[in-house]
Amino acid sequence: MNFNVVLQTSIPGMTPKRGKVRDIYDFGDKVLLVSSDRISAFDWILPTAIPDKGKVLNQTAEFWFETLGVRNHVITTDVSKIPFPAGTDLSMFEGRSVFCEKTKVVPIECVVRGYLVGSGWKEYQKSQTVCGLKLPAGLVESAKLDEPIFTPSTKEETGHDQNISFEETADRVGSEIAEKLRAYSLDIFKRGSEYAAKRGIIVADTKFEFGLLPSGELILIDEVLTPDSSRFWPADQYEPGKSQPSFDKQFVRDWLLGSGWDRNSPPPTLPDDIVLKTRAKYIEAFERITDRKLKFQSEI
Asked: Contact, 77 vs 62, CB < 8 A?
């Protein structure tokens, strides 16, 4: 099938910085973040994109920024209000763009965990800790923690982010900023996970990013509580003691692991059914959480 996807965007006269998913354009004291349909797994950007994935990420974040009422970087998501240069093809930006205040990014991934999973579960099995925090004995994989925990990590340009302790976070950014990062992250996670729970979705963990305005004010930036930055589980299928079905790249990861790919050479092309199943999961998560229909959705 020929899917309608946006792998890369372009603006006349501008050169974006391209991350794994986003194209980032510098507008002086403002910045444009564009969520492409690129998908990454095991630190590789795959050759196959997922239709509408960027729109899901952008519109999910837009919903949370509106709903949480937390000071954030969003100026507008309306492309007609973004100062694009003449000749820009706006169609590739509809539904997937956010025009933002520029901040000095705090170099810490603010991870909050409500359940024991992923790298946290791996560390717990070795030392009964997560990022240096001691946890009760006898916990199983995917166990719900008594209280969500703040487990920061480094922000790496390439490769995996590295888990660090709160003390090391304070050493890197100062104790005042570190305390704010922890307090803000735990508060946003609590309110977001309570909201999602009413819609039958468990937020197992998530990560936030923060930036400093020229005034010194710390604000929420990047994305918030999306399927790329969070683990979303269907509450009616939750069963501790094993890995959980989720609303993210599960189909992609499972297919890649079973494909014979060595994870050291360029990854293979995804088959159409995996593309469509992954797209459906992203859209289902968006619709269940927001009770909205995805805007500018492709015809498949």
From this structure: yes
